[in-house]
Task: inverse folding
């Protein structure tokens, strides 16, 4: 399985357009050891020809251009055979509206994520100019769904599983009934190698199922949004704590570093990194702590071959 990180940052990216925190300034002016990052999006392939995107970031156009394997091979074409959505947050779905140049799209999502995106969304009509423009494939919780390329098995099978999260900000107050499908993780199995990628960019807290899935993989991507619960509050950037945003912090008591310390998945990578997170600085103490515990910090362009 080939895995390519097209974007490793949380919503806003790094630097974020309206932020002059130390990290964002450092990423702009080079005064710190910190790389600029686009918003989270990862490409996966079993054969390096047919690719599947995990989430569709608002920066998708430049992310496709930055990775030649995703370039068209003919006049109108795309090696992107499908797009999988972990939730309906704008940093995961806005890119869909940028893929409106009449290319047929296959989108894999739970029914709740699909409805949250299409219902009452007048902009979605831009993807409905022809009936066959978008094909939705439903991801049932706990069921295996084959990812297909040109109608044939791609070698990848996905299982979506429920992960504690929250509704997209734009649906807050509109939807009350929660189905448990609003935020999911993916377990992606490659056949016939049996290699497994577990993808968890938004985890509010750990459940036995999330822990079990995280621990039985060859490669794990995990929510690295914040280092600490009060990161935004202490900076004066927001009144919201990490738990208000359903992102388990990395550090501290009960943080993912300690909660996952028994998980021996060989490749463990933090992704969906908020620009305020000190692990982004290559010479920070927090990054050294994560590295010593065996974690890598995602960067744009990172490639993993399983
Ligand atoms: C999140 O990851 O919590 C969301 O992307 C936040 C947002 O949509 O503003
Ligand atoms: Mn996000
Ligand atoms: Zn910032």
Result:
């Amino acid at each position: 399985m080939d895995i390519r990180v097209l974007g490793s940052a949380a919503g806003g990216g790094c630097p974020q357009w309206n932020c002059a925190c130390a990290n964002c300034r450092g990423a702009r002016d080079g005064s710190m050891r910190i790389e600029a990052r686009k918003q989270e999006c990862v490409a996966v392939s079993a054969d390096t020809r047919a690719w599947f995107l995990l989430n569709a970031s608002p920066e998708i156009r430049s992310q496709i251009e930055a990775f030649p394997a995703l370039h068209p091979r003919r006049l109108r074409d795309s090696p992107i055979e499908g797009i999988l959505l972990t939730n309906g947050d704008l940093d995961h779905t806005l890119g869909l509206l940028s893929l409106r140049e009449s290319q047929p799209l296959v989108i894999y999502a739970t029914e709740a994520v699909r409805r949250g995106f299409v219902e009452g969304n007048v902009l979605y009509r831009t993807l409905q100019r022809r009936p066959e423009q978008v094909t939705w494939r439903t991801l049932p919780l706990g069921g295996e769904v084959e990812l297909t390329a040109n109608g044939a098995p791609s070698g990848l099978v996905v299982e979506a599983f429920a992960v504690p999260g929250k509704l997209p900000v734009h649906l807050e107050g509109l939807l009350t009934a929660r189905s448990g499908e609003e935020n999911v993780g993916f377990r992606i199995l490659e056949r016939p190698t049996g290699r497994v990628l577990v993808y968890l960019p938004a985890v509010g807290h750990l459940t036995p199922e999330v822990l079990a899935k995280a621990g039985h993989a060859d490669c794990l991507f995990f929510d690295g949004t914040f280092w600490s619960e009060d990161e935004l509050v202490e900076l004066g950037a927001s009144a919201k704590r990490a738990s208000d945003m359903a992102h388990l912090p990395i550090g501290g008591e009960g943080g993912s570093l300690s909660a996952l310390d028994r998980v021996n998945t060989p490749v463990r990578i933090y992704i969906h990194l908020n620009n305020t997170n000190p692990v982004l600085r290559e010479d920070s103490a927090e990054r050294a702590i994560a590295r010593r515990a065996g974690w890598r910090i995602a960067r744009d362009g990172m490639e993993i071959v399983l």
